[in-house]
TrEMBL record:
This is Amino acid transporter transmembrane domain-containing protein. Residues 1-23 are annotated as: Disordered. Belongs to the amino acid/polyamine transporter 2 family. The keyword Transmembrane applies. Its main location: membrane.
């Protein structure tokens, strides 16, 4: 174990280790009176940031996932993945508390996998947050399309969304973006409630035939087949799996040890909201649910909900892009004085990171314009290894002695081996499922050509 790994350990058993107050010097961002002071985030603002990272574009794809799994299967999946992702981040947070030099999940991977582990994990992290930024751009362009009655080509709305997101993500400190998250969270939550109320006041779903008999398509337990089932499971998983973005937030907290105060209320609120929202919309819309789901209650409610949600959708994409850019920024300037100095190099590097990743997000959003497929692809390719396998590997690294311990300890060890294998299964299985469905969507015309003016984002 290196000297950095030993910082903060007060016991041979990591489960009973405490964080020493003397670890302040190991933090990536130092508390400073001159230069740029990043450490200004309190635990409550961190909680709001956590909520806004999760309760964003993911919630808009959940009713479509329940369409594949059925109400009971989908509800169980929402709760189970919420609990699982909470535990996975507890592992990440505890690992980071014992090694405060870790700014990102890539730094943690370096502890157990060296340079190869760090660079591989860092690449997955960047790809993941570029893709979710792309999903945010799709959400914003969909809102602008709905509000303008498609007054311009969808590509232009996406381009405008990219420009706005890059501009807001270029705010350097999370504590300043934190103020935007209050408005952003209220915006998305209010829009979701409007849709929930809207669908329950209709005689039949907006997309269903408005005269004559029709089939609602509400199913308690469904058997969608392997590909569709993996896509649905991946969509539900990724809706609360963005916890790797919590780590950079911890690095900007005034007291990083308070991270659990922020984590638990966040996950309870997000999981409960996901469950209630997805079940109500699926119950009233069935197979006629839209994706993104804000369009499920008819044109008028669609315009109202997107108008209310617009700020929240922008803030969501802003946070995703900011977190990804901050990772690159710290990697580039982390060992130089320019990290916290108001220099030309500091600003030039920071703006280059936000602009570069923002442009890539826009390109990918136009290449895979169907919203729920993009969300599922993020879950399978990026977050399966980042949020399932890697936390399991980190726990195994710190608890290797459990393999020779008591029966309970051996069982715990094997369960965490199972986490690693589960992540690999999702990486392979869900990516295969998404690929099959994207190929089919292009073949049957559900997805038009790339950079098309068609509004593909409303396809279910």
């Amino acid at each position: 174990m290196t000297d950095k790994e030993q910082i903060g350990l007060s016991s041979a058993d990591p489960e009973h280790a405490s964080v020493s107050d003397s670890t302040e010097g190991s933090e990536v961002f130092k508390k400073t009176a001159d230069g740029v002071s990043f450490r200004n985030v309190g635990w409550f603002k961190a909680c709001i940031l956590f909520v806004k990272v999760l309760f964003a574009t993911g919630v808009l794809s959940l009713p479509s996932a329940l369409l594949s799994l059925g109400a009971v299967g989908g509800a169980i999946s929402v709760v189970a993945w919420g609990a699982f992702n909470t535990y996975a981040f507890v592992i990440l947070g505890d690992f980071r508390m014992r090694r405060p030099h870790c700014h990102s999940i890539a730094d943690m991977a370096e502890v157990i996998g060296g340079v190869v582990g760090k660079e591989t994990t860092g690449l997955l992290f960047i790809i993941g947050y570029v893709l979710v930024t792309g999903s945010g751009i799709i959400g914003v362009s969909t809102a602008l399309n709905a509000l303008s009655h498609h007054a311009a080509c969808t590509v232009w709305w996406s381009f405008l969304a990219m420009v706005v997101v890059i501009a807001t993500a270029s705010i350097r400190k999370l504590t300043h973006i934190g103020w935007l998250t209050y408005v952003g969270f209220a915006s998305i939550y209010a829009a979701v409630l409007i849709v929930v109320i809207g669908v329950t006041t209709r005689d039949r779903p907006a997309a269903a035939p408005q005269t004559g008999p029709y089939e609602l398509g509400y199913i308690a337990i469904n058997n969608p087949g392997f590909a569709a089932g993996m896509v649905a499971s991946s969509t539900i998983f990724v809706s609360s799996a963005g916890t790797s973005a919590f780590l950079p937030v911890i690095s900007e907290m005034r007291n990083p040890k308070d991270y659990k105060k922020a984590l638990y209320p966040c996950m309870v609120l997000v999981t409960a909201s996901y469950l209630a929202f997805s079940l109500v919309v699926y119950r009233w819309c069935g197979q006629w649910v839209a994706s993104p789901s804000l369009g499920s209650a008819g044109q008028t409610i669609k315009m109202v909900s997107y108008g209310v949600a617009l700020i929240g959708l922008i803030v969501s994409a802003t946070i995703y892009l900011h977190v990804g850019a901050k990772y690159l920024f710290v990697r580039i300037l982390g060992k130089t004085r320019h990290l916290q100095a108001n220099s030309v190099i500091h600003w030039g590097t920071w703006l280059a990171c936000t602009i570069f990743l923002g442009v890539i997000s826009f390109i990918l959003a136009e290449a895979i314009p169907i919203f729920n497929y993009l969300i599922a692809l993020v879950g399978s390719v990026c977050f399966a290894p980042l949020a399932i396998s890697l936390p399991g590997l980190l726990w195994l690294h710190d608890h290797g002695h459990y393999l020779k311990g008591s029966l309970v300890q051996k069982v715990k060890y094997l369960l965490h081996v199972g986490m690693v294998l589960l992540g690999i299964f999702f990486l392979v299985g869900a990516t295969y499922g998404v690929s099959i469905q994207i190929k089919a969507a292009y073949a049957d015309g559900t997805i038009g050509s790339t950079f098309s003016c068609a509004d593909n984002s409303n396809s279910s």
